[in-house]
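Why should sequence recovery work at all? Because a backbone constrains its sequence more than one might expect. Tight turns favour small or flexible residues, buried strands favour hydrophobic ones, and helices have their own preferences. The token representation captures these environments compactly. In the example below, the structure is given first.
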């Protein structure tokens, strides 16, 4: 990760906001490659990854079906998911309310796209 080019200042602010917003998610999720699944799947490399794509995690049927259908996480899907997880995946196991603020969702997505600075 040391090889990654430095981010412009404003992007860095958004990233740091995303990192702060991710703190409560860490109760259940790691975001570092190779970390073990906890109560929730590891979210390392999430953007571009299959939905339900942590091989170390036993997903709910709705996410297992999304995986089989070949769905992948991109920024647009993640944004809609964070706004209303249960609406996107009825029966989803994660007890999380949607994030109403578009700016907060964007910050989280920026962080998840690049969990190591
Ligand atoms: C109480 C534990 C818990 C917390 C807190 C939590 N999650 Fe989750 N999360 C889960 C579980 C469990 C799943 C798998 C759900 C399933 O299989 O239906 C999941 C799944 C996900 C997925 C889909 C992963 C994949 O591999 O497709 C994303 C993205 C996600 N969570 C993001 C977040 C974010 C962002 C936060 C914080 C805002 C958060 N979660 C907070 C438990 C949690």
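From this structural description, the recovered sequence reads:
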């Amino acid at each position: 990760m040391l090889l990654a080019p430095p981010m412009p200042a404003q992007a860095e602010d958004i990233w740091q906001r995303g990192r702060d917003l991710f703190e409560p998610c860490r109760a259940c999720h790691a975001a570092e490659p190779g970390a073990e699944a906890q109560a929730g799947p590891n979210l390392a490399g999430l953007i571009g990854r299959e939905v339900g794509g942590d091989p170390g995690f036993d997903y709910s049927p709705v996410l297992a079906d999304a995986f089989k259908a070949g769905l992948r996480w991109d920024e647009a899907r993640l944004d809609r998911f964070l706004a209303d997880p249960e609406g996107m995946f009825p029966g989803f196991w994660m007890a999380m309310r949607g994030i109403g603020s578009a700016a907060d969702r964007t910050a989280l997505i920026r962080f998840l796209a690049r969990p190591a600075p």
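A few observations help interpret the result. Residues 9-22 form the longest helix (14 residues).
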